[in-house]
Amino acid sequence: MFINLSNHPSSQWGEAQRQDALRYGEIVDIPYPQIPVKIANEEIDSLVNNYYDLIVQYDEPTVMLQGEPVFAFRLTNRLKTVGIKVLASCTERVSEEEKLEDGSVRKISQFLYGGMREY
Predict the structure, then answer these.
(1) pLDDT of 54-98, one tens digit each?
(2) Which of 23, 45, 87, 93 is the 20 to 30 A CA-CA neighbour of 101?
(3) Which stretches does DSSP call E strand in the chain?
(4) Main-chain dihedrals φ then ψ at residue 19, nearest 5 degrees
(5) DSSP per-residue letters across 53-83
Protein backbone atom coordinates (compact mmCIF):
# COMPACT_ATOMS: atom_id res chain seq x y z
CA MET A 1 0.00 0.00 0.00
CA PHE A 2 1.39 3.40 -1.02
CA ILE A 3 -0.19 6.36 0.75
CA ASN A 4 0.21 9.74 -0.93
CA LEU A 5 -0.17 12.27 1.90
CA SER A 6 0.46 15.52 0.04
CA ASN A 7 -1.26 18.34 -1.81
CA HIS A 8 -0.51 16.61 -5.12
CA PRO A 9 -3.12 14.01 -6.12
CA SER A 10 -1.62 10.95 -7.78
CA SER A 11 -3.93 11.52 -10.75
CA GLN A 12 -1.70 14.49 -11.65
CA TRP A 13 1.62 12.62 -11.41
CA GLY A 14 3.74 11.66 -14.36
CA GLU A 15 4.17 8.03 -15.33
CA ALA A 16 7.62 7.64 -13.70
CA GLN A 17 6.34 8.75 -10.29
CA ARG A 18 3.24 6.58 -10.59
CA GLN A 19 5.37 3.53 -11.44
CA ASP A 20 7.73 4.18 -8.50
CA ALA A 21 4.75 4.39 -6.14
CA LEU A 22 3.13 1.23 -7.52
CA ARG A 23 6.20 -0.78 -6.50
CA TYR A 24 4.82 -0.46 -2.96
CA GLY A 25 1.27 -1.44 -3.89
CA GLU A 26 -2.01 0.29 -4.59
CA ILE A 27 -1.86 4.12 -4.40
CA VAL A 28 -4.22 5.79 -1.93
CA ASP A 29 -4.47 9.60 -1.86
CA ILE A 30 -4.99 11.24 1.52
CA PRO A 31 -5.20 15.04 1.18
CA TYR A 32 -2.70 16.96 3.29
CA PRO A 33 -4.38 18.95 6.05
CA GLN A 34 -4.59 22.73 5.92
CA ILE A 35 -2.26 23.93 8.69
CA PRO A 36 -3.09 27.50 9.79
CA VAL A 37 -0.10 29.76 10.49
CA LYS A 38 -1.19 30.43 14.06
CA ILE A 39 -2.06 26.86 15.01
CA ALA A 40 -1.07 25.82 18.54
CA ASN A 41 1.37 22.96 19.10
CA GLU A 42 -1.35 20.94 20.79
CA GLU A 43 -3.53 21.23 17.68
CA ILE A 44 -0.67 20.03 15.46
CA ASP A 45 -0.15 17.08 17.80
CA SER A 46 -3.86 16.30 17.59
CA LEU A 47 -3.70 16.32 13.79
CA VAL A 48 -0.63 14.07 13.90
CA ASN A 49 -2.52 11.63 16.12
CA ASN A 50 -5.54 11.63 13.80
CA TYR A 51 -3.46 11.01 10.67
CA TYR A 52 -1.34 8.39 12.44
CA ASP A 53 -4.51 6.52 13.46
CA LEU A 54 -5.75 6.67 9.85
CA ILE A 55 -2.47 5.45 8.33
CA VAL A 56 -1.89 2.50 10.67
CA GLN A 57 -5.25 1.04 9.62
CA TYR A 58 -3.69 0.14 6.24
CA ASP A 59 -1.79 -3.11 5.79
CA GLU A 60 1.98 -2.47 5.58
CA PRO A 61 1.77 1.11 4.31
CA THR A 62 4.56 3.15 2.80
CA VAL A 63 3.82 6.88 3.05
CA MET A 64 4.92 9.71 0.77
CA LEU A 65 4.62 12.67 3.13
CA GLN A 66 5.12 16.24 1.91
CA GLY A 67 3.73 19.53 3.13
CA GLU A 68 3.93 21.91 6.08
CA PRO A 69 7.24 20.96 7.71
CA VAL A 70 6.38 20.78 11.44
CA PHE A 71 3.39 18.48 10.91
CA ALA A 72 5.40 16.41 8.41
CA PHE A 73 8.34 16.11 10.83
CA ARG A 74 6.20 15.06 13.77
CA LEU A 75 4.14 12.57 11.77
CA THR A 76 7.25 11.14 10.10
CA ASN A 77 8.89 10.54 13.47
CA ARG A 78 5.77 8.88 14.83
CA LEU A 79 5.37 6.60 11.80
CA LYS A 80 9.03 5.60 11.80
CA THR A 81 8.87 4.55 15.45
CA VAL A 82 6.52 1.72 14.41
CA GLY A 83 8.54 0.78 11.32
CA ILE A 84 6.50 2.54 8.64
CA LYS A 85 8.62 3.70 5.71
CA VAL A 86 8.18 7.41 4.94
CA LEU A 87 9.32 8.91 1.64
CA ALA A 88 9.59 12.30 -0.04
CA SER A 89 9.37 12.92 -3.76
CA CYS A 90 12.47 14.57 -5.25
CA THR A 91 12.08 17.05 -8.07
CA GLU A 92 14.21 19.46 -10.03
CA ARG A 93 12.68 22.88 -10.61
CA VAL A 94 13.24 24.37 -14.05
CA SER A 95 12.08 28.00 -14.18
CA GLU A 96 11.64 30.45 -16.96
CA GLU A 97 11.02 34.18 -16.48
CA GLU A 98 9.56 36.58 -19.01
CA LYS A 99 9.36 40.34 -18.56
CA LEU A 100 5.98 41.57 -19.77
CA GLU A 101 5.25 44.88 -21.51
CA ASP A 102 3.74 46.36 -18.33
CA GLY A 103 6.99 45.69 -16.44
CA SER A 104 5.70 42.71 -14.48
CA VAL A 105 7.41 39.35 -14.64
CA ARG A 106 5.75 36.05 -15.45
CA LYS A 107 7.53 33.03 -14.01
CA ILE A 108 6.78 29.52 -15.20
CA SER A 109 8.16 26.61 -13.21
CA GLN A 110 8.28 23.01 -14.25
CA PHE A 111 8.97 20.30 -11.69
CA LEU A 112 10.80 17.30 -13.09
CA TYR A 113 10.35 14.15 -11.05
CA GLY A 114 13.66 12.56 -10.04
CA GLY A 115 12.73 9.75 -7.66
CA MET A 116 11.84 9.26 -4.01
CA ARG A 117 14.04 9.54 -0.96
CA GLU A 118 13.44 7.94 2.43
CA TYR A 119 13.26 10.11 5.55
Answers:
(1) 999 999 999 999 999 999 999 999 999 999 999 999 988 899 999
(2) 93
(3) 2-6, 27-31, 62-65, 85-99, 105-118
(4) -65, -40
(5) HHHTTSSS-EEEE-SSHHHHHHHHHHHHHTT
Sequence letter at residue 9: P
- Residues β-bridged to residue 28: 3
CA nearest 13: which of 32, 33, 34, 27? 27
Residue 7 per-residue DSSP state: S
Q: Would you say 30 and 3 are in contact if contact means Cβ atoms under 8 Å apart?
A: yes
Residue type at 74 in one-letter notation? R
Distances (CA, A) of 48 to 38, 67, 74: 16, 13, 7
Q: State yes or no: pLDDT of 111 exceeds 90.
A: no
| pLDDT digits 0-9 by tens, 31-58 | 999 999 999 999 999 999 999 999 999 9
